[in-house]
């Protein structure tokens, strides 16, 4: 993706990766950041029994988790140093059953405001060698500032 945004935090990549490393859920899901640019974050998650549902597809909760996280870190990459970000709402459309072996969530900032940031995440699986969208997320995130700021 071509850089559409500039981060106000020169060390945004280290900041995002350090935060991601503290997320117990992403560790549990086996997810990892594979691409990170200002306003853009890609997370991949391998299939495992712990992220499956009864028919052998990825569970919708796991799909929502990596989509929310990809969007969240896309937004966080634009935050000034010392600030944080919290999701205040999201809508997830599951457009087809997500099949193994890997999910890829591509989070991007649509609009970065002073307090609220709107993001989108597209989630893909690979079927017969082709990447197909299996879920779409739109979210609103809120910048939180350090105490006393």
Describe this structure in words.
It contains three helices and six strands. The mean pLDDT is 95. The N and C termini lie far apart (33 Å). It has one domain: Hotdog Thioesterase (Thiol Ester Dehydrase, Chain A, Roll), CATH 3.10.129. The protein has 149 residues and is an alpha+beta fold. A hairpin with a 2-residue loop joins strand 1 and strand 2. The radius of gyration is 15 Å and the shape is elongated. A six-stranded antiparallel sheet has the order 1-2-4-5-6-3.
Main sheet makeup? 6 strands, antiparallel
Low-confidence stretches: none
CATH superfamily: Hotdog Thioesterase
By secondary-structure content and strand pairing, the structural class works out as alpha+beta
What is the level-2 CATH architecture name? Roll
Mean pLDDT: 95
Radius of gyration: 15 Å
CATH overall fold name = Thiol Ester Dehydrase, Chain A
Helix content: 10-25%
Distance between termini?
A: 33 Å
Number of domains: 1
> What best-fitting shape do the alpha-carbon axes yield?
elongated
Q: Beta-strand percentage?
A: 35-45%
In short:
It contains three helices and six strands; from the N terminus they run ααββαββββ.
Notable traits:
elongated, alpha+beta, six-stranded antiparallel beta sheet, 149 residues, Thiol Ester Dehydrase, Chain A
